[in-house]
Design goal:
Elements: E1 2-6, E2 14-20, E3 25-30, H1 38-45, E4 51-57, H2 63-71, E5 74-81, H3 84-96, E6 103-107, H4 114-120, E7 127-132, H5 148-154, H6 158-171, E8 172-183, H7 187-194, E9 198-207, E10 216-223, E11 230-231, E12 235-236, H8 247-254
């Protein structure tokens, strides 16, 4: 459900206001370019820590972080992005969903040095939960999207991904939970980036349909843990050949269930 309207926040761009979690959240986002959807909802619903502060890296318009806040009444959030237009929409989304007392935004390049991160207000060794849905094509792969925001939202090489994970590691509190969602073909560089920084890794593959290869992966780690990796069975998003979601994921999208894993 969406309502298109013009806005001065995103110049020369139409913005939609889309309903998430069965209407519990209304999210403004650009009508074209990168748009929050299934991955953002799954990421927010995958957060298990119900207290403390959540850090959403590359938050865009804030969907994943706000989904987590909708599920956890005692959680607060800091949403970080380096695109002013997207961060402005995130600020609007926080206010319009009645979450101004629980969420703030920071403008920051996540590949910046620790000194720059600290000056921007990003705390070290602080956040109970860190989540991210990083750009999902390696540089040089896929079709480059028009416009810097959309291009940045879809392209990242392994070195940049490692810097995102480094920022997550520096920001998370001891025993903090770190969760990333990416396409399955990004698993190798993501595992390499998590290695040595987090333990108790839990890997959840998501398949579009039964007997099809996984298309997405969720990877969770715990800062300071030395526990081994757990590879969970793949879960299926859709039923049969249609577009209907499996009951587990339909409930997650409607906001009546979290992603338990």
């Amino acid at each position: 459900m969406s309502l298109d309207h013009a806005t001065n926040i995103v110049k020369h761009q139409t913005v939609t206001r889309d309903a998430f979690l069965g209407g519990r959240l209304g999210i403004k986002q650009p009508a074209k370019g990168f748009r929050a959807g299934l991955d953002s909802v799954l990421l927010g619903a995958a957060v298990s820590a119900g207290t403390g502060t959540l850090l959403d890296l590359g938050a865009g318009v804030g969907t994943a972080g706000l989904v987590a806040l909708a599920h956890h009444a005692l959680l607060s959030a800091v949403l970080v992005d380096n695109e002013p237009e997207m961060l402005a929409l995130a600020t609007e989304n926080i206010a319009e969903n009645g979450l101004s007392g629980r969420a703030t935004t920071i403008s920051l390049d996540l590949t910046a040095s620790g000194t720059i991160r600290a000056k921007a207000g990003l705390k070290a060794d602080h956040y109970a939960t860190v989540i991210a849905n990083p750009p999902f094509f390696a540089a040089g792969q896929g079709t480059l999207a028009k416009g810097s925001a959309r291009a940045a939202a879809r392209h990242m090489d392994a070195a940049s991904l490692d810097l995102w994970v480094k920022t997550a590691a520096a920001s998370a509190a001891p025993d903090g939970e770190i969760t990333f969602i990416l396409p399955a073909d990004s698993l190798a560089p993501l595992l390499a980036a998590f290695d040595g920084r987090f333990g108790a890794l839990t890997l959840l593959p998501l398949s579009p349909r039964p007997e099809t290869p996984a298309s997405r992966i969720l990877l969770r780690g715990i800062k300071g843990s030395r526990a081994p990796l757990t590879l969970l069975p793949a879960r299926t998003l859709h039923i049969g050949e249609g577009n209907a979601f499996a009951p587990e994921f339909e409930a997650i999208l409607r906001g009546t269930a979290r992603l338990l894993w």
